[in-house]
Amino acid sequence: MSLAVVFSRARHGLDAPLVTVEVHISNGLPAFQLVGLPETSVKESRDRVRSAMVNSGFAFPDRKITVNLAPADLPKEGGRFDLPIALGIIVASGQLAEKSLQGYEFCGELALSGEIRSIVGEIPVAIACRDAGREVVLPMLNAQQAQQVPKVVVHGAEHLLQVHSFLLAQQPLPAIPALPVREQQHLPDLADVKGQAHAKRVLEIAAAGEHNLLMLGPAGTGKSMLAQRLPGIMPPLTEPEALATAAIYSIAGLKRNLTDWQQRPFRSPHHTSSAVALVGGGSVPRPGEISLSHHGILFLDELPEFPRKVLDVLREPLETGVVHISRAARQAEFPAQFQLVAALNPSPTGHHQDGRATPEQVMRYLNRLSGPFIDRIELQIEVPLLPKGMLSQHTQEESSASVRERVLAARQLQLARQGKANARLSGSEIADFCPLQQADARFLEDTIHRFKLSARTYHKIIKVARSIADLQQQAQISRAHLMEALSYRALERLLSYLKN
Where's the AAA+ ATPase domain (predicted)? Predict the structure, then answer.
């Protein structure tokens, strides 16, 4: 047969669209033509496939070979199409029956020796194959990761000859080795932080409702320590959340280990990071730090040291939970449902009113944070210096394990009531799941107008109050819950005071 059809998958954002590899061998001068909007790395597969087939003992046709990667308007990049192209040539040249390819999809880059090298983005490929009802053959290293996708049949191969023998039903492909299990990482414990009971209380509320948190205080008060201990009190990832996180890491060329499969990501980019590093981008769009923090925590230390323009690009993802990247030839959408935790000092010197920074310097330093950006952060607190004698006291602080129990109980209430964390509620859902007594609603609205806060702040205060009530296992939001939630918006007034 001179025509063969092989199924493969391309990479487009977080999706793996189907690519039909059509190979036709016809009479004429020897040639190898590749069509279907291939990029340079795909065009180079002509030389890789030829050498891999010859070195594996296959006869390479001395005729005109045309390979079409359909659909023609979908850009193709990478070496993932080497294996399906080689199999298409083998079938079209009569060295393998076409029916043996039925029910399978193939992805893999070929070495000149015929060995199969790993690709990027195996998790989306495995998910797409599962949804299409087909089995997938991947490089062995990719198959190790892809086997974590439930309800999909994954095969791992190390050489082109192994795939050929498997399709001929002569011998099975090698067993996929289990992922190496690293020693369980011990997350930092909240008991290590001396004092700061107020900050710990707010950290618990942030974990319970998945709220954004901003901490202001002098250098060395424990802001970074508190942020690093947030993952230890948060609920583990659910299976769909863990799979979505693994898919993002997969297309970024990173791996998720079995020990951290259900552990929430914690990303802490340096303040010299660019806007593209945070939100993603590139000629072939790649996920940035906010997408790598999906269902996890993005910690920005020394917040004013980030350029204001860089911080402002986070405003839309904070609201929508997704980021849209548009380039001249490519567009992509990545999920970015992250929890922002930020820390900053009250002045460039690290302290307020220490005499080393003028009021103008303090104002210029704090003005790096825009009002709309601050407005999107629900919990804003001050972390003060510890009182004298606190560090030398041998007091038993509450552990992360005990705090986590309360957080888990509160999160279970939220999932049973509305199916999501409180911070993710929309405006209409707030009316359904966070009703206020009429007097309390008037009190909150009067307070919002008195302090000239935004309508966004009004809804965020209600969601924080809902989380406080959930931690206390109370079905109704009370005035006390609202007042506590309002107290965590004092930073806006504090910043205004510091600037003056």
Answer: 209-387
Please name the helix (run of DSSP H) or strand (run of DSSP E) that holds residue 25, with its range, or none: strand 18-26
DSSP tag of 244: H
pLDDT in tens, 58-115: 999 999 999 999 999 898 989 999 999 999 999 999 999 999 999 999 999 999 999 9
Under-70 pLDDT residues of the chain: 1, 180-185, 258-259, 352-355, 389-392, 490-500
d(CA 11, CA 20): 14
Across 38-129, the runs of DSSP E, i.e. the strands, are 64-70, 104-106, 109-110, 116-117
CA dihedral (469, 471, 472, 473) positive or negative: positive
Domain ranges of the chain: 3-168, 190-385+399-499
CB 264 within 8 A of CB 236: yes
Q: How far is the first Cα of the chain from the last one, in angstroms, to the nearest whole number?
A: 82
As a whole number of angstroms, the distance between CA 82 and CA 98 comes to 18
For residue 55, what are its two tokens? Answer: 């070195």
In the block, residue with structure tokens 């890789």 = 48
List beta partners, residue 266: 297
Q: Please give the CATH topology (third level) of the domain spanning 3-168.
A: Ribosomal Protein S5; domain 2 (3.30.230)
Beta strands in 71-157 (DSSP E): 104-106, 109-110, 116-117, 135-139, 154-157
Q: How far apart (Å, rounded) are the C-alpha atoms in residues 328 and 343?
A: 36
Distance CA 286, CA 325 (A): 9
pLDDT digits (tens, 9 = 90+) for 350-359: 776 666 777 7
Helix (H) / strand (E) containing 404: helix 400-418
Structure tokens at 132: 């299409």
